[in-house]
Amino acid sequence: MATPPDILPSAVEAIGSTPLIDLARITRGIDGRILAKLEFLNPGFSKKDRIARQIIEDAEAAGELKPGRTVVELTSGNTGTGGSFAGCAAAFKEHNPAIKCFIVEPEGAAVLAGEPVTYPNHRIQGGGYAMADLPLLDSELIDGYLKVSDEPAIETARRLAKEEGIFAGFSSGANVAAALQLLQTDFKGQTAVVLICDSGLKYLSTDLWEN
Q1: What is this structure's pTM?
Q2: Which of 37, 47, 48, 147 is catalytic?
Q3: How many helices (H) and strands (E) does the chain have?
């Protein structure tokens, strides 16, 4: 019996095709627009679903991963601090070289921007590790670096939940806070697109949701 086209055979096939949402409430009163890609709507509540699936499929195709073997992923912070930027920026630049692509880093730990780490205990999980050598990152794709401190990241994550109904984590708050910076400086009237990397469910034990 054929499977109807709107029924997926497993959760694996549900990875990707996440919606893009206009953050019209967050940007009210600002000259510009922010669109948010809701990656927490992947089955594993994170953009990590995409790379995990690709790594496994590539390893299977190459014969490096056999049935019954165990897969261990040892990084934290969305599978380690540049793949999303590298892939998206390359595709955007190919589509339209005028598109600007910015890296968001924690204030006091902007290692990719070449700054020393003065605040290693920042709250923006997934960014700012002392790992500046990321082979996937092509410097020619980087149009600038944006720094976000803990307070704006946390405040913006809470605003996403309260005003937009989007329950996300620290890095998502940082991404949107950085986009708000852009729209209030040199990019007034433009459209910024950000990733909502993962779900706020993963941070219920932190002070992000202490109230």
Answers
A1: 0.91
A2: 48
A3: 4, 5
